[in-house]
């Protein structure tokens, strides 16, 4: 043998110290209380107790800024046979009211604003706000604005 380590019958310590578990992760052999096992147990326990991590739908400390652009063209002011009674714009405003409530429930730190586009111009109905009250007032103000153009 050319090298001294080839002559001895010493086992490779990395081959005898680690094994692959059922999930494909490398773990230490025989030592159940290893640092990695303790960290994994702690992480699992924290995930089970933390609602945001468990559902993965809500994210804490994430601030979103969102402007919703509303089409106020004459096509939106026409009645649609598929949409329930009323115009397309009225149906859109009703859906935006529901969206507004759900948005603030799921994103308490986030900001929302509305922009109305009509006659080739954009008008800010409500500035970005973390309160739903100005957004609801802005949605209520759309009907009189559109009614004056008919």
Description of the molecule:
- This protein has a 3-stranded mixed beta sheet with strand order 3-4-5. Strands 1-2 form a two-stranded antiparallel sheet.
- The chain has helices at residues 4-7, 13-17, 35-49, 51-55, 88-106, 132-140, 142-147, and strands at 18-20, 26-28, 65-71, 111-118, 121-129.
- With 150 residues, it is of the alpha+beta class.
- Helices cover 42% and strands 20% of the residues.
- The radius of gyration is 30 Å and the shape is elongated.
- The chain starts with a helix and ends with a helix.
The ordered H/E elements are HHEEHHEHEEHH
Tell me how many strands there are. 5
Output the strand order for the largest sheet: 3-4-5
Shape: elongated
Instruction: Please report the number of helical segments.
Output: 7
Q: Low-confidence segments, ≥5 residues, pLDDT <50?
A: none
Mean pLDDT: 79
For the biggest sheet, the summary is: 3 strands, mixed
Helix content: 40-55%
Class by alpha and beta content = alpha+beta
First CA to last CA: what distance? 97 Å
Residues in β-strands, percent: 15-25%
Rg calc: 30 Å
Summarize the helices and strands and which ones pair or pack.
Layout: H1 4-7, H2 13-17, E1 18-20, E2 26-28, H3 35-49, H4 51-55, E3 65-71, H5 88-106, E4 111-118, E5 121-129, H6 132-140, H7 142-147
Parallel strand pairs: 3-4
Antiparallel strand pairs: 1-2, 4-5
